[in-house]
Amino acid sequence: MIISIVAGGPVALLPDLNVYREKTSIWVGVDRGVYTLMHHDIVPDAAFGDFDSVTEAELADIKETLNHLEIYPTEKDETDLEIAFNWALSKHPEEIYVFGATGGRMDHFIGNLQLLLKKPLLEQKNNLNISIVDKQNLISFKTPGTYSLEAMNDKKYVSFLPISKEIKGITLEGFKYPLTNHVLPLGSTQCISNELISQCGNFSFTDGILMVIRSSD
Question: What region holds the Thiamin pyrophosphokinase thiamin-binding domain (predicted)?
Answer without folding.
Answer: 145-211
